[in-house]
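Reopening this one. Same input as before:
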Amino acid sequence: MRKLATALCAILLLSGTAAAFSASASKWQGYLLDRQCADSVREDADPKVFIQHHTKDCALMPNCRAKGYSVYVASTDNDKWFDLDNKGNDLAVKLLKASKRRSGFYVEVTGTRQDKVLKTQSIKEIEEPKVQ
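Same output, byte for byte:
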């Protein structure tokens, strides 16, 4: 009986942790590019032009791929750069390879944030919102 009670407590604890994790997930929308190139424009006043024309071929080059990927989130108050975790990097490579685009990879990342790193649950390519 004691083992059954312990097992039930463990199941409840694990399901509560999973629910808390999924409940705290957030979404970020922005441009995906490799960290090698992101580092070269991270301090620019307006890196968006470079980012919009950054190519799939560059992002998938061995040196760029090895360094990992970042997401540039532009907003009216301030622009933000987030690096993807290992899972996010793997998902980014799959997305880039499957994409029909040649440049300008606008994505939505779902996950949790730890400082400047996105602990990625999913990533998908979306249309960039039109500026009115």
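So the earlier flakiness isn't reproducible anymore. For the record, The helical segments are 2-23, 35-41, 48-53, 56-59, 62-67, 86-98.
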